[in-house]
UniProtKB/TrEMBL annotation:
The lineage of its organism: Eukaryota, Viridiplantae, Streptophyta, Embryophyta, Tracheophyta. It is a multi-pass membrane protein. Keywords: Membrane, Transmembrane, Transmembrane helix. Belongs to the major facilitator superfamily. Proton-dependent oligopeptide transporter (POT/PTR) (TC 2.A.17) family. This is Protein NRT1/ PTR FAMILY 4.3-like.
Amino acid sequence: MALQGLVDWRGRPVNQKRHGGVKASMFIHFLIVMANIANIPMILNLVSYLHGTMHMGVKDASTTSTNFFGAICFFSFLGAFVSDSYIKRFYTILIFAPIEIAGYMLLAFQAHSPSLHPPPCDMINNPNECAPASGRNLSLLTLGLYLIPVGEGSLRSCAAALGGDQFDGDDPAELHGKISFFNWFAFCISLGGFVGLVFLVWVQDNEGWGLSFALAAIMVLFGTVVVSGGLPFYRHQKPTGSPLTRIFQVFVAAFRKRKLLLPENVTEMHVATDSTGTSVEFMQRSSDFKFLDKAAVDDGDTRRRSLCTVTQVEEAKIILRMVPIFLSSVLGNVPIPLLLSLTVQQGGTMDTRLGGTSIPPASLFIVPIVFQMFILVAYDRAVVPWLRRATGYAGGVAHLQRVGVGFASSVMALAVAAVVEGRRRSAAASAAAPPMSVFWLTPQFFLLGVMDVTSFVGLLEFFYSEASAGMKSIGGAIVFCILGAASWLGSSLIQVVNHATARQGGGHGWLDGANLNASRLDLFYWLLAVFALVSFFLYLLCAWRYRTYRHDPRMQDDKVSPASTRQATV
């Protein structure tokens, strides 16, 4: 039963009618909206604060902003590990949310206090005369910037897993709600980003960063209070101890017994019982990675970590199966943050008039977010029911198929962006030609929305559903680690390409300088399109080789197969 290991807030077995379901998930969705109202404007506009107020150079400000986003993604693993190992997911949120709030309040205090700023100067006309933040001011800034990722990263991974726990995958009546939860989880991220980019960015530009940071702290606090109100309705997964320790034990035991012969009869292997307390589900032996099966063979060795259960071995196999999907997904996501940020720079050089109003370039971030929200609603309400009837898949398509659609969309978005940039550059070079309208960017924004709706949600569903019951939070954290790794690799890719093209172009790289018309952004887009296409085919190979779904995607009741394996069409 999927409800095995789940308890209410008092530690009693859950009542399926009273606990969980859409009612409980609404509290979690509200938290995600509030957290992203605070967080997304911070991610997208942090460079302005670091450069304009703290007087950092453009390069240092951009690097710090990229590291901030990467830290959020990687700190999600910390909260996931804690919640899977020692503390229930809900209580992990309550522990880490105040850390995020403290980070925002530190930044608000610093932004509000001129004595904690660098000396005043003219950053626009005489930037070389400006001294960047240093000493205690830099230390306070760094502390605030890293407290936020510790809290936000943990909140993200635990909220996704806690929401998934509210639905029973073995109950057809709840299965569709579980599938919709992750769609609406992504919708709430987009909704929070939309409100934040409209409201908090206006506050940053007109009322100051101090008030903006304080409002961000209030948003997270409000979301935490509301999610706390859902405590009586949640289904809580009991922690099962460190999954990393269990998996490490498998590799140690398998190495010690590498010379043993595997028994033909599975009954000769150590099968977990309820008394082991190391897992809330019991998995049967699968046929791949047979060298790990030796860890569950009892050879009479009484040393610590010498004997593992079959379930422990299967947990280790799950991780190994997912490694190629993880790596290929990192590569597939590398071009996305680059395309998003560079598209906004494109828009700043185009005709941004809409009737009698001019659209600020920073507001262009809102466009893909709006597309994402509309596409998510249409996909969940119309496309999934139709695909479910057509394919027989509970989610309309298999998780890895959905991710593949997203990566294919990213290839098309990059190709479209390259063509549009080529035309924009030609128009800019002609004195007689009027500047292109910013609405030429609509197709690539739309394809970016499709990519986010399909690949992000698909990866979240995949890693959550494939992870064992004792690793659900870590499964969700893996997705955010993918985004963080892709962001850092993207920054490195820009440096490598710029350095290589500068050597061949007489010292001027494709993306050198502030003048986009003198750069070769169109060629960089084509390079990213080729990179994305190669990554897409690599992903297809990895997805095709992933033949072992723990849950049959074609089964409408999503039950675990007897052998915990199914052949899945990718």
